[in-house]
Structures are given as structure tokens and as C-alpha cells.
Amino acid sequence: MVREVSGEELDQMVGDGKTVVCDFFATWCGPCRMLSPVMEKLSEELKDRAEFVKVDIDENGDLAASLGIFSIPDVWVFRDGGDSRDHNLGYLPEDQMREFLVNALK
Predict the structure, then answer these.
(1) Taking residues 77-92, what's their average pLDDT?
(2) In the prediction, which pLDDT does 81 show?
(3) How many domains does the chain have?
(4) Which own/partner pairs from 66-71 qualify as long-range (CB within 8 Å, at least 24 positions apart)?
(5) Catalytic residue among 5, 32, 42, 63
């Protein structure tokens, strides 16, 4: 299950050293709505490897700006307290998103 969190909650999770997959989105974004069910499914498949969350960039603009997120959807994988990060910009079909996440979570 992908739960929506605030930028502060994401910072806390990353700061605690958790491996986090974060889908940066906005409610008005069509590709974001297309990606949502893909992320839900993959969050179940990969729940033992990372915590899955999403952050609304309209409500957390400062965080999005600090990370350089200006286009969405943008899926980030945070590891090692945020020192190690991978991201994928744009919609990917399920099989391609799975491949990205599996490789990023190695």
C-alpha cells in the first residue's frame, strides 16, 4: 500500500535510514493518476524491500523545489539516509517500473 505523506514525514523516514520509494505527484496530473495503480501493485510485490509513499508536490512545494522536481510523476528511491538516490521521471508501464525499482533497490 502506498500512503500519502508530507514532506516532513518523508524527511524523517529518510533521515531514519529507511529505504523509501516516493512517488512525487499532483492530483491534477493525468500520468500521475495512470501510475498510481502501478505503484500500488508494485508496493505489494516489493514491500519487504522498501516503504512506499507518495508526496503531493502542490502541498509540499519547498521539498519538490529542493530536490529539483519540476515535472511529474517522478519516482525516487532513497537509501542510506538519502545519500544514495535514484529516480525515474515520467510514467512507465508496470513491467518497466518494476525493472527500475528492482534495480534501484539492489
Answers:
(1) 90
(2) 82
(3) 1
(4) 67/24, 69/24
(5) 32
